[in-house]
Design brief:
The complex is a heterodimer of chains A (267) and B (62). Chain A is mainly beta. In chain A, 8% of the residues lie in helices and 29% in strands. Chain A has three helices and 22 strands. In chain A, the strands form four sheets. In chain A, strands 1, 2, 3, 5, 7, 9, 10, 11, 12, 14, 15, 18, 21 and 22 form a 14-stranded mixed sheet that branches. Chain A has a three-stranded parallel sheet with strand order 4-6-8, with no helix packed on it. A three-stranded parallel sheet of chain A has the order 13-16-19, with no helix packed on it. The radius of gyration of chain A is 21 Å and the shape is elongated. Chain B is globular, with a radius of gyration of 13 Å. In chain B, β3 and β4 form a beta hairpin. The chains are: A mainly beta (267), B mainly beta (62). Chains A and B meet through loops of A and β4 and β5 of B.
Chain lengths: 267, 62
């Protein structure tokens, strides 16, 4: 029995009965039975290769980085639920890929790094998707400076910490932050938008919380970005703007509809 | 035709909402910016005309 456990656990150490056996068994990481014959993923999903078509699930015990394998020709879509249940410490994704529920049920680690392409749409789905454990910085790989987010990029995602969109982004495309919510706790989450932002594209709830979990928005730009529709911001708890910019935001087209919840930063 | 609706926030701020009854986007002048609909304070210095670009359909509600 000990040999069998050592084989599965990849260990050669001796095991004391019974505690050592229990600890060793609990430490075994198992895959979810996906088909690896097409080399679509490797090493318990630490790498994703484009062209994968199979849905798999894993029950991973430890947070792990997921790396996108570069490929000259990207498919339009990666398998739904491909990463279901995984715990992710960092994520690097290639350009031009459309994900539907690929990361549903995922948990992102504290301070996870998140490198994504501007036209990569990750979480579009009609149900709750990936959980971001806390404090995510939405950023992009060095040398790549996208100016737009992807449509519905983070729609229906749950977060457990503040979201910060990196400087350089000029346009929040429709639906990018549609229906985002706080995981478990019934307190509002915050979304910080960069000073470079010039446009929030029209669509209902491009930036929105949910009906029982409103969103706090923090604007870093002194000039109000264009809001292409009055409903682009919905289920918003408060909008904090830079000091000295209160009137500019309260009187800007479509921002004016939120004038009563716009407040000035203290510094 | 552009429809105008007046509303007052709890703070007393008076707003005017404008949208097209033909379902097209509005062009704000003098900025030239396109809007699905536009809510401005009462004395905002803008004039709107209808474009020929349809407003995107509203997605299913949450």
């Amino acid at each position: 029995m000990a040999d069998a456990i050592r084989t599965k656990a990849g260990s050669s150490e001796s095991l004391a009965f019974p505690d050592g056996f229990v600890t060793a068994v609990e430490g075994i990481t198992t895959g979810g039975g996906g088909d690896t014959s097409d080399n679509a993923y490797e090493s318990l999903l630490r790498k994703i290769i484009s062209g994968h078509t199979q849905s798999v699930s894993f029950d991973m015990n430890d947070f792990t980085p997921i790396e996108w394998i570069d490929n000259a020709s990207y498919p339009n879509m990666i398998a739904p639920y491909l990463c279901y249940g995984t715990k992710i410490s960092s994520l690097s994704l290639g350009p031009g890929v459309y994900f539907t529920s690929t990361f549903q049920g995922c948990v992102f680690d504290d301070d996870a790094t998140f490198e994504i392409d501007s036209d990569t749409s990750i979480f579009a789905s009609n149900s709750s998707n990936g959980l971001f454990k806390s404090s995510i910085n939405v950023s992009w790989p060095n040398g790549y400076a996208p100016k737009k987010t992807a449509s519905y990029m983070f729609a229906y995602t749950s977060w457990n910490g503040p979201i910060v969109v990196s400087e350089g982004v000029e346009t929040i495309t429709k639906g990018t932050f549609y229906g985002i919510s706080q995981y478990k706790a019934s307190v509002p989450i915050s979304l910080t938008l960069p000073s470079t932002l010039t446009t929030v594209e029209s669509d209902y709830g491009t930036i929105s919380g949910v009906y029982d979990n409103y969103l706090n928005v923090i604007m870093l730009g002194e000039t109000p970005p264009t809001l292409n529709s009055s409903s682009a911001l919905t289920y918003i708890n408060s909008i904090t703007v830079p000091k000295g910019c209160l009137e500019a935001y309260q009187s800007a087209t479509n921002w004016s509809a939120h004038a009563d919840i716009i407040v000035e930063a203290t510094e | 035709m552009i429809i105008e609706e007046k509303a007052t926030l709890k703070s007393g701020r008076v707003l005017i909402k404008r949208y097209s009854d033909a379902g097209v986007k509005l062009i704000q002048t003098p900025t030239g910016i396109l809007y699905d609909d536009a809510i401005d304070v009462e004395n905002a210095p803008y004039v709107y005309i209808e474009s020929n670009i349809p407003v995107d359909p509203v997605p299913e509600s949450q």
